[in-house]
Design a protein that fits this description.
Blueprint: E1 6-10, H1 21-28, H2 32-43, H3 49-58, H4 68-74, H5 81-90, E2 93-102, H6 103-112, E3 117-126, E4 129-135, H7 141-155, E5 162-166, H8 172-177, E6 180-184, H9 188-193, E7 196-198
Parallel strand pairs: 1-2, 1-5, 2-3, 5-6, 6-7
Antiparallel strand pairs: 3-4
Helix pairs in contact: 1-2, 2-3
Bound molecules: magnesium ion.
């Protein structure tokens, strides 16, 4: 990647988009409410993220990959996301996403929203259906912070010119590493530890924070 003036790293679920993708995929298995309750607990920071993700992904076993089309159709971008990403680009910045969700969905959604680079978990597939296992290393709170640090180094951006935006407990590490940590639409534990709390669900309100 070429050098950039600054870097903004977003969480995906409930930050860049209004949904929690794992709940939408769980709906395809008829297990939406159960997975939604477990996701809520993980985002409040009550349980270990990786352990929780493994057990939630196990509930997705048997969902056909063909069902991803319905999941994609239900994704709702967060208000203001296109305006904010356009403003990042106008000012010479890079928009990145690191997600405890899944490449299988983000690989379609991220480019549509103008995101430059993204990283997420991968769902193992066999015979056209999910096996209920996460493929490879899990992107957890440390993984998110590591992605932000690695992208900043690649782009020649000092950490003080990075911004991390998220809503969940697994965003706190990257928010701590970033020059500015923004709690967006966030859980109470996340609000308490953020540099800035964005209370309204409108990403365009972050434009004045850009360097
Ligand atoms: Mg989130």
């Amino acid at each position: 990647m070429p050098d950039a003036r600054f870097l903004v790293v977003f969480d995906a679920d409930s930050t860049l988009i209004r949904n929690e993708v794992i709940e939408l995929i769980a709906d395809e298995a008829g297990r939406g409410p159960e997975v939604a309750a477990a996701t809520e607990a993980a985002m409040r920071g009550e349980v270990d993220f990786a352990t929780s993700l493994r057990s939630r992904v196990a509930a997705l076993r048997g969902v056909p990959v063909a069902g991803f089309a319905r999941v994609l159709a239900r994704i709702e971008p967060t208000p203001g996301v296109r305006e904010l990403i356009a403003a990042i680009h106008d000012r010479g910045g890079i928009a990145a996403v690191v997600s405890g969700g899944f490449h299988e969905i983000l690989d379609t959604v991220a480019p549509q929203l103008g995101v430059d680079v993204w990283r997420a978990n991968r769902l193992a597939v066999q015979d056209g259906a999910l096996t209920g296992v996460v493929d490879g290393e899990i992107v957890d709170a440390e993984g998110k912070a590591a992605a932000l640090t690695a992208w900043a180094a690649e782009l020649g951006v000092p950490l003080r010119r990075t911004i991390a935006v998220g809503d969940g407990a697994n965003d706190l590490r990257m928010m701590a590493v970033a020059g500015l940590g923004v709690a967006f639409n966030a859980k109470p534990a996340v609000r308490r530890q953020a540099d800035i709390v964005a209370a309204r669900v409108d990403l365009a309100e972050l434009i004045p924070l850009l360097p």
